[in-house]
Specification:
By secondary structure, the chain is mostly helical. The protein is 70% helix and 1% strand.
């Protein structure tokens, strides 16, 4: 108890006292017969110059460690014996060795600091300069400018015999040239060379793109690469270790160059070079990922030739390393496709179609990865449709009724039709068809007939390419029943409606004659396209029976000769194909339940051809030619640069007409006869010309319904005279004419 009372608590000790007292427990730190006050008195010793805290701390650590080793003999004799046999140096521990080692770890400052002289500084600078790397020496001394003579010298030397040192210099010069294209001053300063002239830049890039690859191939394998053959990977060369870093730098520079060129021809040459060095990119995964991102951007936004070349690079990389790069490429390409489909115009349709076909080809490289992406994105479309059907709000409708949704449906219909023979994507046909049908039924109004036609065209493509029966005819025949084609149009318009680039019609469009003309033409085209895909079916007569009845009913009710002519021609071709199939199936001997025999019969009928398919092939050629002529005609009209007609407001036009005819109908003038003659002959003609010009302007400007309503009200109020700005009083005076003047008649003698 006395010993423990004399023991100070841990909280009362300073840091130095705690370190000097050791880390043993109470039982270990207080041996029998040892005075309890030794540690506190030792800790309270005055700090002299030689007995400071650091010295006492070092001495305390060494002594405590030596005491622990001595006590170890009594506590654990077996372990102490083991140390004696295996590690005798640990037991022979001396305090002087530890203190000397610990003293060497600390640096003591001198009492006086000396300043170095200028000569010593120059000598130290020279010694330090010898140790600076070569790259930093060039940066410090300044980059060497590249000249045309140097480029030509490198070119000749590389063609004769390319060495690793020469290749390193060429790569550094090429890197400096590429750094100038994006204003990379840091990269240009870090390089050994500097390109200041545009002629030198062109010469350097041309040399590297055209000639450097063949020289590098000779250096690695001793022979030039052969076109169309796949050789050994570049990493198998014995010189690969020396050239690896330089090749990596060169590939990074080429990728950077491909992203900053604006001239299409130069960019095309760079992309062709990239396609030839794809095996080198495959050895560097990081550079390959950067390249693929750049190629996807060019595939989505570049010029037509650049799109094709970028797509070839993507396909080449995916075929060589499908597992590593195919998944990220598919995701990035699909996102780029959706971004480019936000707006649709006649000029953008070929680009969207190209992206659909190329993305389908990339998905066809691996049916497993294609199924994963198709399932994910079709489900995403279905979720948008489900939210729109559940919430019934304008915002949710817009998430479905837009061009991105429509083009995604067309894409997946094309993908399933292309990959269906493999069978991997066949389970996705039904959910995709249900999504399209649900999209048709979401808002089944006349304003969204163009969107319905787009959906039906996608279903027709899916049905024909996969060989799956999808009921498309009911949605087509429903339009025949809902639209009254005999109704007199509310307004006339000479500009046809292009159903291929619209999703919704305005209320003004629904009143026009061109709307009914275009709608009937689209219905006949879609009916023909769908039925020609089913023309070889053994059940074709029963399949088209509702359509035949509906078309006959339309012919009985419709009074428009042009509409009847188109429908009658379609009906005749359908009935002709019905009779052909009926005659062929009467001669068969198998039953309906014999599915293999039915499939063989349909396959043979398709190979031989039916009247409807022959007519469709001929009609398709004429239709494509007509579309090309329309596109070329529009291009020719755009080149003519017609003057733009700016439409004036009705109120301004009335004021101008009042000022124009104020002097014309002034009855107090001397030339009344001339005025009356002009009022009887000139005014109506000018009014008729203006009225015709206004009608042409109204036809060209069919988007604003408010403007057309104002014009109709103006015409109802006063006709052409009201547009001229004549008041009721002026009209009455004009109708009465000038007052009659009586003159004395002078009769001759003969009269």
């Amino acid at each position: 108890m006395a010993a423990r009372s004399r023991k100070r608590r841990l909280a009362e000790l300073t840091v130095d006292e705690f370190l000097a007292s050791g880390f043993d427990s109470e039982s270990e730190s207080e041996p029998e017969g040892a005075p309890a006050a030794e540690a506190p008195t030792a800790a309270r010793s005055p700090r002299g110059p030689g007995g400071g805290p650091s010295a006492s701390r070092r001495k305390g650590r060494a002594s405590e460690h030596k005491d622990q080793l001595s006590r170890l003999k009594d506590k654990d004799p077996e372990f102490y014996k083991f140390l004696q046999e295996n590690d005798q140096s640990l037991l022979n521990f001396s305090a002087s060795d530890s203190s000397e080692d610990e003293e060497e770890q600390f640096h003591s400052l001198p009492n006086m600091l000396e300043e170095a002289s200028e000569e010593e500084e120059e000598e130290d600078g020279m010694e330090a300069g010898d140790r600076v790397p070569r790259g930093l020496q060039g940066k410090k001394s300044g980059s060497a400018p590249v000249t045309l003579a140097m480029v030509e010298q490198w070119k000749q030397a590389a063609k004769q015999h390319l060495t690793p040192k020469l290749f390193h210099e060429i790569v550094q010069a090429f890197r400096a040239a590429v750094a100038t294209t994006q204003g990379d001053q840091e990269g240009a300063e870090a390089s050994r060379f500097q390109v200041m002239d545009s002629a030198v830049f062109n010469a350097m890039v041309t040399f590297c793109i055209r000639d450097l690859l063949s020289c590098l191939q000779k250096l690695l394998f001793g022979k030039a690469p052969k076109d169309g053959t796949r050789g050994a990977p570049p990493s198998s060369s014995p010189l690969w270790g020396k050239l690896r870093l330089d090749i990596k730098t060169y590939l990074s520079s080429v990728t950077q160059l491909a992203g900053c060129l604006t001239e299409a021809t130069v960019a095309a040459a760079v992309l062709q070079h990239i396609s030839s060095v794809v095996p080198y990119y495959l050895t560097f995964p990081q550079q390959c990922r950067v390249l693929l991102k750049r190629m996807v951007v060019l595939w989505g936004t570049g010029e037509e030739t650049l799109r094709v070349l970028a797509f070839l690079v993507l396909v080449k990389v995916c075929r060589h390393k499908k597992d590593a790069f195919l998944g990220p490429i598919l995701k990035r390409m699909y996102i780029t496709y959706v971004k480019n489909c936000k707006f649709t115009s006649p000029s953008a349709l070929p680009t969207i179609t190209f992206m659909q076909r190329t993305l389908t080809e990339v998905l066809a490289l691996d049916s497993g990865a294609a199924y994963q992406h198709a399932f994910l994105y079709i489900r995403q479309l279905a979720v948008h449709l489900r939210n729109a059907m559940a919430m019934r709000k304008k915002e949710t409708y817009q998430s479905v009724y837009n061009w991105q949704f429509m083009h995604c449906l067309h894409l997946w219909c094309r993908v399933l039709g292309t990959l269906c023979p493999s069978g991997a994507l066949e389970p996705l046909i039904y959910p995709l068809a249900q999504v399209i049908i649900g999209c048709i039924k979401l808002v089944p109004t006349a304003r969204f007939y163009p969107l319905r036609l787009h959906c039906l065209r996608a279903l027709t493509l899916l049905s024909e390419s996969t060989g799956t029966f999808i009921p498309v005819l009911p949605f087509l025949l429903e339009v025949f029943q809902q639209v009254n084609f005999n109704k007199k149009p509310g307004r006339m318009s000479a500009k046809p409606i292009n159903f291929a680039v619209i999703l919704k019609l305005s209320n003004v469009n629904l009143q026009e004659k061109v709307y009914r003309d275009g709608l009937l033409e689209q219905l006949c085209d879609l009916t023909l396209e769908y039925l020609q895909g089913q023309a070889h079916s053994i059940a074709f007569p029963e399949l088209v029976l509702p359509a035949v009845l509906q078309l006959k009913s339309f012919l009985r009710e419709c009074k428009v000769a042009n509409y009847c002519r188109q429908v009658r021609q379609l009906l005749e071709k359908v009935q002709e194909n019905v009779e052909y199939v009926r005659c062929r199936r009467q001669a068969v001997s198998f039953g309906v339940s014999d599915q293999p025999a039915v499939d063989a019969w349909e396959k043979q009928t398709r190979a031989e051809g039916t009247p409807l398919t022959k007519y469709y092939s001929h009609w398709r050629k004429l239709r494509d030619r007509e579309i090309q002529l329309e596109i070329s005609g529009k291009e020719r009209l755009e080149d003519l640069n017609f003057p733009e007609i700016k439409r004036q407001r009705t109120e301004k036009r009335k004021e101008e007409d009042r000022k124009e005819f104020k002097d014309l109908f002034d009855l107090d003038s001397d030339d009344e006869e001339d005025v009356s003659g002009l009022s009887g002959t000139g005014a109506p003609g000018s009014l008729r010309v203006r009225h015709g010009a206004e009608e042409e302007e109204d036809d060209e400007d069919g988007g604003s319904s408010s403007g057309s309503e104002e014009e109709v009200s103006d015409l109802d109020d006063g006709g052409a005279d009201a547009e001229a700005g004549l008041g009721p009083g002026e009209l009455q005076r004009l109708a009465q004419g000038p007052e009659d003047e009586l003159e004395d008649l002078q009769l001759s003698e003969e009269d």
